[in-house]
UniProtKB/TrEMBL annotation:
GO terms for cellular component: mitochondrion. InterPro entries: Rhodanese-like_dom, Rhodanese-like_dom_sf, TST/MPST-like. GO terms for molecular function: thiosulfate-cyanide sulfurtransferase activity. Keywords: Repeat, Transferase. Residues 34-154, 184-287 form the Rhodanese domain. PROSITE patterns: RHODANESE_3. Pfam families: Rhodanese. Gene3D superfamilies: Rhodanese-like domain (3.40.250.10). This is Sulfurtransferase. It comes from Plakobranchus ocellatus.
Length: 294
């Protein structure tokens, strides 16, 4: 943690559209001082490489002052590799986010156009992985923003380059060997974010299933903290003990990490290779097909 960020107060993993609207209005009234302290990122994304996400989503309408964050550039999919979404190099991440006008004292708000199920929380996690905790996700995404009566724009904001010092946090990531060792030690509880049937078809032995759709209400907003806590309890997860999050390829697990953060457990690591890597590198007897837990 840098000296600058050490004095920044803790921020929530989620913010509401009402809160964000107020911040945008404050920035408009005092542009020079406020614009550098808040950066809104449109992370609208689909997995198909044939879709130009910036053109098809961001340019069609976005939250005023938002800048497009290209997840495909930062974490390009490796379709033939064990790890589908690799972690970017620290210097690359630093240069990329500086180009978006982000500095170490910037509060980042991430949202996406289609839903809040994957890209927003992956980006939220990446910033934390590189030592920047001043990051939140817009609860409900652009859909909730519009539902609450707020405007969108097609205007693109110009930004001055930021000064960002990326400090990689190795304690927030788990590789394949650490997951193999955990089978023997049982130090960390493994939570699997995949949908129940996919989980049943094969999972890391001993892992507990909290299907990522269960984290959300029907409108795409997060469930209440009490409801989230109940989901963890029902899955047999002890929030007072170490946890590591996994999924299919390292995306939806970030949703469970954010849910744990809402409940006060701030540093849940990600198994970035997740079950894609696990199934490719382990023998069949290391893949469990036991009954659903929770």
């Amino acid at each position: 943690m840098t000296e600058m960020s050490a004095n920044i107060p803790k921020v929530s993993a989620l913010v509401t559209s009402a809160w964000l609207k107020q911040q945008i209005q404050s920035a408009a009234q005092n542009f020079k001082s406020a614009s550098k302290s808040l950066r809104i990122l449109d992370s609208s994304w689909v997995s198909s490489s044939e879709v130009d996400c910036c053109k098809e989503f961001y340019q069609q309408g976005h939250i005023p002052t938002a800048i497009f964050f290209d997840l495909r550039t930062v974490c390009p999919a490796q379709h033939n590799a064990h790890i589908k979404y690799p972690i970017p190099d620290s210097n690359f991440f630093k240069e990329y986010v500086q180009g978006l006008g982000i500095s170490n004292d910037t509060h980042i708000i991430v949202y996406d156009r289609l839903n809040t199920y994957r890209p927003s929380f992956r980006i939220w996690f990446l910033f934390r992985l590189f030592g920047h905790n001043q990051v939140s996700v817009l609860d409900g995404g652009l859909k909730q923003w519009i539902k609450d009566g707020n405007d969108v724009t097609t205007e693109t904001s110009e930004v001055e380059p930021g000064v960002f010092n990326a400090q990689f946090q190795p304690h927030l990531i788990r590789d394949h060997m650490s997951m193999v060792k955990n089978i023997d030690t049982g130090v960390e509880q493994v939570i699997d974010a995949r949908k129940a049937q996919t989980y049943l078809d094969g999972h890391i032995p001993g892992s507990k299933n909290i299907a990522y759709p269960s984290i959300f209400n029907e409108d795409g907003t997060f469930r209440t903290p009490s409801e989230l806590r109940q989901l963890f309890v029902q899955a047999g997860v002890d929030l007072d003990s170490p946890i590591v999050a996994s999924c299919g390829g390292g995306m939806t697990a970030c949703i469970l990490i954010a849910a744990a953060h809402v409940l006060g457990k701030e540093d849940v690591p990600l198994h970035n290779g997740s079950f894609r890597e696990w199934s490719a590198l382990t023998t069949p007897n290391m893949i469990s097909h036991s009954e659903f837990q929770g």
